[in-house]
Amino acid sequence: MKIVDVESFVIGNPWKAWYVALVHTDEGITGIGEAEGWLWAEAVRAFVEQNKELLFLGRDPFRIEELRRRFRLEVYERWGYGHTSLGALAAVESACFDIVGKALGVPCATLLGGRVHDRLRVSANGWYTHVTTPESWGDRAREVVEEHGYTALKFDPFGSAYRELGLEGMRVAEERIAAVREAVGDKVDLIIEAHGRFSIAEAVKIGRMIEPYRILWYEAPLHNFLDADAHLQVKERVSVPISTDLAAIRDRWECLEFCRKKAVDVLQPDFRHNGGVLETKLMAELAETFAIQYAPHQANGPVGTAIYAQLNATCSNFLIQEHFEKFASPEWLREVFPDFLIAAGDGFLDVPDQPGWGISFDREAARRRPLQNRAGQISIFSPGWERRSFERPPRIE
Questions:
Q1: Residue tagged active-site, from 83, 148, 273, 297
Q2: Model confidence, pTM
Q3: Which phi-psi region, left, alpha or beta, contains residue 299 (left: φ > 0; alpha: ψ -120 to 50)?
Q4: pLDDT in tens, 29-79
Q5: Active-site residue 195, yes or no?
Q6: Could you give the CA distance from residue 390 to residue 229 in angstroms, rounded to a whole number?
Q7: CA-closest candidate to residue 64, choices 124, 17, 1, 114
């Protein structure tokens, strides 16, 4: 079997851009994969189109490690790498897994060692749209828990702050967190997301402020370009678990430094940022080696959710999976992804048994839904971003 083409799609809603790759073979089997969208979607499409003959066409999709090695030699070893190139590799590599699963008639979890989990706990994200006062944050949180059964909520209460939050920002953030905790009670876990933006000293202040609220973890408190030692300084001075989403950590070597120094309590790699499923699986195993839990970053589209469902099912140290679909999805989502995964009413995701990643894609529907509002992509440094000033998308059931 040989790869004969890589077809690219950039779709999305006003909040997000999704890059989806279809990898076609000479035996008529097509695999689906995903790269980081957001600011890089069109760049990934251009990279794939320019380099697919050199890097992908004519290769055997069953020989995934060989494809990755060739990519590393041509891209990593010569000119370095970044979100664009690693995203392209992730999209094609994950699509190759889909091809192999479909060819063998098995879900990708089987190719990755077999399931440890049949159901995955998920945390709701994207739920805090159009909230203003602390009371409205609490009301919305209660609604999400009562109507949809989630047992964990993830949110960023810090507005558009960068580096320093200040006394007023600290007051507002704490009021929001307190309102959510009071609204949902002690049976729901809270994950506080800082989006990698604070200085060490400010991250410590905030970490101490949130200690009374019994959170599951404090995510990405520091700038992504800061190293393991900087994260360790925060971890040693607060009593809440910390994580970094590792969106800026590109491979196993950088991940190893965080694990070896035990600089985080929860490891959050993203296959779209580090070059694919195999690299992410290795990172999860590195974390397990150092008694660190694994909860991958999943803020992209339905293909990513399907990929993580299969991958996470095979990871012994899996903790929880991020889930946006019910709250940040366009009304046409099922038109493009007819069988996309969505959490059940108890806050868990059932892992599919279908071959490959277990998700289908309607090419013609996708062509009707190209990304339109590029100016509307969320910037967390714009006031009011957390309220999503765009039209609130419908709930997907």
A1: 297
A2: 0.94
A3: alpha
A4: 999 999 988 788 899 999 999 999 999 999 999 999 999 999 988 887 667
A5: yes
A6: 39
A7: 1
